[in-house]
Amino acid sequence: MKRTGAQILWECLVREGVTEVFGYPGGAILPAYDAMLDFPIRHTLVRHEQGATHMADGYARASGKVGVAIATSGPGATNMVTGIATAMLDSSPIVCITGQVGSRLIGTDAFQEIDITGITLPVTKHNYLVTSAQEVARTVREAFMIAKSGRPGPVLIDITKDAQQASCEFDWDAAAPVVPGWREAPPLAPAELARAAELIKHAERPVILAGHGVTISGAEQALRAFAERAHIPIAATLLGIGGFPASHPLNLGMMGMHGEAWVNLAIQEADLLIACGMRFDDRVTGNLKTYAPNAKKIHIEIDPSEINKNVKVDVALVADLRVVLERLLPVTDASDHKAWFDRIAAYKGDSAVRDIQSLPDDGHLYAAHVINDLWRATRSQDTIVVTDVGQHQMWEAQYYHHDEPRSLITSGGLGTMGFAVPAAIGAKRARPEAEVWAVVGDGGFQMTMCELATAVQDGINIKVAIINNGYLGMVRQWQEFFYERRYAATPLSGPDFVKLGEAFGIRSRGVAKRADVLPAIADATAHEGPVVIDFRVEQEDTVYPMVPAGADLHAMIRRPNPIVETAAD
Amino acid sequence: MKLHIFTVYVEDQPGVLNRVASLFRRRGFNIQSLSVGHSETAGVSRMTVVVETDEGGAARIKAHVYKLINVVRVEDITDRPSVVRDLALIKVSANHQNRAAVMQLASVFHARVVDVAPESLVVEMVGSEAKIDGLLEVLQPYGVLEMVRTGRVAMARGSGAGVAAGRGAFLPDAEEGVSYSV
Fold first, then answer.
1. How much of chain B exceeds pLDDT 90, in percent?
2. Which of A117, A305, A309 sits opposite B67 (nearest CB)?
3. Is the pLDDT of residue B6 over 50?
4. What is the mean pLDDT of chain B?
């Protein structure tokens, strides 16, 4: 039976399990939009194509499935670039479909023609230019295979208008992916596994570094079983949060630039690091020359190009993390590292008295209080928190304690401001039964706040907590520490966010006192529909601890002592 | 740091050269030479890429290149016995007075004269980069008007290697104990 390229596109997407797409129509993608109406697909109309990619990304991270974004050629396609790069850096499986001018017009600078496959080449796992209807089916099947396999990532399919319009025979089976370079993962090298087991057996101060790979490979249970048997504390990267329950006694918390002091100190004193699906990013290692100097390193990672990239390791296990941990478990002896845990606990005690939670209520509203209260109010229900980028993101990582996988969605690698609101919309589409909170600074919110209209038009029930300090807070913090408080271009004004929310038709309120935080959250939860809360927090607040960029991991800037002395207890 | 020679088999498709070259640029490696042409298998092109880097860099290059979907096989043949050749066409200023001298120099280097004009001639030489550099040096005094070189092409000696097209035909290098699944 003959079908148009546009029909084949949707037929293949449906067969790949797609039910939700996020997009924005335009001339070169019109045939595809027209055909969409005849397929069981729900389309969310975004306000900017960057939002479509973040929504697809949020959808993918919340569900573990492939997210799909669609846009037209030219500016529609280029607007997607930031979202594609965000997905690339965080290994998130999304497929972006863009219209392209007719194949005969390619190369002529036709209206809304842009070389989007060329532009996205370094920020996609792979991309395609499709110029005939015959190529559509195989391309879509390959794109999904590539996006979700191994280390996931974004794939872009650019389809010319004539390829969407032309007709050809459709045969799903005949369109099976053809990837000559495809390599099935070989079995783990037994010798390497044995070396890893030997290192684990003899370690006295081991630490597991849990990254995004824990969740991507579905290794949460395997990690827990392994860590419990070997009695090893677990530190998480930002994207590793949720892969292991925060409330578990083996959990240490987040490592790195704004990691807890005891976590970084434990890493620096460790005699063995077991890196699980993480990539030793500069934000978690600090100065590589002094990083965990006494530790042997085992790196379990599916992407061989990550091995020895930043940190030289002693044993590399290049395979799916879950498989490796399941193989390690039977060759791991039950251990007890009590002395090691006691040592870490001592560091932890020191940090606790410096903690902002120990501060008396001085009438000011602190972001950390807001986030901690949000955790208290929502911890017992199925909640996803989607953050933006900056101070509030770090406070979220520190003060919202995630016990469930996929309950924190955040832009880690690229650090994309404007991510939270659209990604929250995508997450809500993926898991409508969950309550989805976007925690966002007043800077990032103003980058993509247009997507509130999307939430209203399509009835997407997200709760937006604006952590409003009137500054580009994290940049201001760097200026405070490293640029003598010369606040170049960081003071930030904005509209009245309550009136703004109301203008969108959204229930909105402002909160400036600690006592009003929990009632506002309770009211938002009770309301059936999107909510905006403008939390007006302390303006010049600082995220502690902080490892300055490139400094030794143990050389943290800690919360100043005078505050400790005024702590109530 | 030393020169590493990679042979890369890629699907013969539009844009693949760009993908490979762009990867080296993006990861901060400077390509010293790159040549590309057909391989023994239809639909598969073969590249020879020469890059100056250390052992760790070479290992990372290999892993990164393997991640490109259109790449079928990558080998670092730097430390393997190999035939490495460069082809040069050199146009030298030569007239009836010194033409014989130039031709004699060419023959010493086993180079061929492939074109003769009243005021110039074109010398073709195939050989190692160093030998071609040697020829170039002795031709310079006569006046080198133009030169084009292919960059290195390389092939490991002995049997084995090569590439056969078809899905799943390319098993990972077992001795490395790592997979390169995309």
1. 85
2. A305
3. yes
4. 88
Kindly state the tokens that stand for B176.
């490395």
Is the Cβ of A189 closer than 8 Å to some Cβ of chain B?
yes
On whether the CB atoms of residues A463 and A531 are closer than 8 A, the answer is yes
Six-digit token string for A304: 């061989």
Q: With an 8 Å Cβ cutoff, is A194 touching chain B?
A: no
Query: What secondary structure does DSSP assign to A416-460, as a single string?
Result: -TT-HHHHHHHHHHH-TTSEEEEEEEHHHHHHHTTHHHHHHHTT-
Q: Are B153 and B85 in contact (CB under 8 A)?
A: yes
What pLDDT is recorded for position B93?
97
Task: For residues B67 and A181, give the distance between their C-alpha atoms in angstroms, rounded to a whole number.
Answer: 9
| Separation of alpha carbons B177 and B61, rounded Å | 17
> Which residue of A150, A178, A189 is in closest CB contact with B167?
A178
Q: How far apart are CA A460 and CA B56, in angstroms?
A: 49
**A301 neighbors A318 (Cβ within 8 angstroms):** yes
Q: What is the value of pTM for the model shown?
A: 0.94
- Spans in chain A with pLDDT lower than 50: 562-569
Per-residue pLDDT tens digits for A3-35:
999 999 999 999 999 999 999 999 999 999 999
- Helical (H) or strand (E) element with A75: helix A75-78
C-alpha A362, offset from chain centre: 34
Q: Specify which residues B71 forms β-bridges with.
A: B10
Which residues are registered as beta bridge partners of B86? Answer: B127
B166 pLDDT higher than 60: no
ipTM of the complex: 0.88
Mutate which of A95, A115, A183, A188 to test chain B, going by most B C-beta atoms within 10 A? A183
Tell the residue number behind the tokens 């949000």, with chain if given. A374
User: Sign of dihedral through CA atoms A89, B15, A170, A49?
Assistant: positive
pLDDT at residue A179 in the model: 86
Q: Which residues of A441-453 are buried (b: 16+ CB within 10 A; e: fewer)?
A: bbbbbbbbbbbbb
